[in-house]
Amino acid sequence: MSRPRSIADRAGPAIVALALASLQATAADGGKGCADCHPRQAAAFERSAMARAAVTPAFTAERADAADPRRCLRCHAPGGGRGVACGDCHGSGPHPFPPLEQPAVCARCHDAPGENTVRSFLDSPAFAAGLRCSDCHAVADGGFNHHFRGARSGDLLRDAATLRAFLRSEGDRTLATVTIRHRAGHAMPGGTTGRAVWLRISGRDEGGRERLDRRWRFGWNRDREGRWHDRTLPPGRPVAIELPLPSAAGIRHLTIELTYRFRPGPLDTPDPDAVILDRMEIELP
Ligand code: HEC
Ligand code: HEC
Ligand code: HEC
Ligand code: HEC
Ligand code: HEC
Predict the structure, then answer these.
(1) Residue 10 above 50 pLDDT?
(2) Is residue 193 left, alpha or beta, with left meaning phi > 0 and alpha meaning psi from -120 to 50?
(3) Which pLDDT tens digit goes with each residue over 128-168?
(4) Are 203 and 251 within 8 A, CB to CB?
């Protein structure tokens, strides 16, 4: 490719003024001027959580308590600035940049301790089928788009996980088997930091009184010594939970609910963004 021309060669003075004005409002290119010539990509990336990864209230608060706050920027804003920028994925060599290798370019930041998004992706049906990270996270209107949406974009979670339940009698008790399957391209939840999938099985008797309330959390757990434990739902393999229903409780009605949550803490902690992934109601004989 020929050397990229300066923006003044490409456009008249009026457009230059306009482009410069918009450039000032765009920190997503890390001040490298990429937005001058790639305004569509810059505008899309500007909307992503990555572009402001170093200025969110959650990050600022957590970083203030960190033992080594400088380390945080290695992934949240390697070039300084408000967050991840163009060069953090495309590199800093001469323009034009070589095609990106996925998922290697993402692994640098997305396999942090307490996270296995990229490693579990390599073991997923999505990877075996030839999908890349961007095929699920960076598409709009059928084409590639730099918005890199996450779980907060509700449609990524639509039909992302499903429940099945079987009941069987064993002697005088009933066993419930609940199976969870999901379609994320990696362990679910992807990422770390409080994201969790919760399974709740509750039961009521004939009078509508609650007689059973069991909860399971799938995600990363941090123990008191600060070690991380992987309790995520693996990709491509269903997870089954077996629960004997206490026969003395007289349970007539079961509710099984699977919820995606963004906040750490127990299921009762309010989370305005929580999404119900699937729900079943079962009447018992
Ligand atoms: C002066 C204009 C200009 C600037 C500034 C500029 N680019 Fe480009 N870029 C282009 C043009 C024109 C192409 C198309 C080249 C082609 O298709 O051969 C391109 C292509 C690309 C490609 C695709 C490469 C390929 O061959 O697939 C990437 C990625 C890219 N630019 C990233 C960047 C980044 C990141 C920056 C900032 C560091 C940047 N560009 C700055 C004009 C520019
Ligand atoms: C190895 C790379 C890496 C390092 C180092 C790192 N992070 Fe992160 N961080 C990430 C990634 C990737 C995510 C997004 C993953 C996800 O979806 O939860 C993230 C997410 C977060 C979030 C959650 C944002 C949200 O909206 O939920 C906070 C807060 C955060 N990091 C704080 C920190 C702090 C504070 C430090 C330094 C002590 C730090 N991080 C160091 C990679 C890193
Ligand atoms: C999180 C990683 C990441 C960041 C940050 C990023 N890109 Fe990209 N970019 C990609 C990926 C992945 C592709 C390749 C898509 C494909 O293979 O089809 C790409 C493709 C491109 C292309 C060629 C395809 C197209 O959309 O026309 C251009 C130009 C480009 N990026 C510019 C930029 C600019 C400018 C920025 C900063 C504003 C930026 N990128 C930030 C990941 C990134
Ligand atoms: C330089 C480090 C870095 C690189 C490289 C990187 N990411 Fe990220 N990514 C982050 C951080 C930090 C966050 C957390 C942003 C936040 O929530 O504040 C994040 C968040 C995300 C999210 C969640 C967005 C949301 O709305 O919650 C997705 C999806 C994502 N990245 C995909 C990718 C993909 C795909 C690649 C490779 C093409 C990639 N990232 C490369 C650091 C990086
Ligand atoms: C088959 C589609 C698919 C592929 C491929 C895929 N993902 Fe995901 N990803 C999802 C879905 C669905 C979710 C939401 C559920 C969850 O958290 O697992 C998600 C969640 C995430 C999150 C958490 C976002 C948040 O808001 O906290 C990150 C980070 C992420 N993916 C990164 C990646 C990276 C990096 C790759 C490539 C190594 C990748 N994903 C490949 C579908 C996919």
Answers:
(1) no
(2) left
(3) 999 999 999 999 888 999 999 999 987 999 999 999 999 99
(4) yes
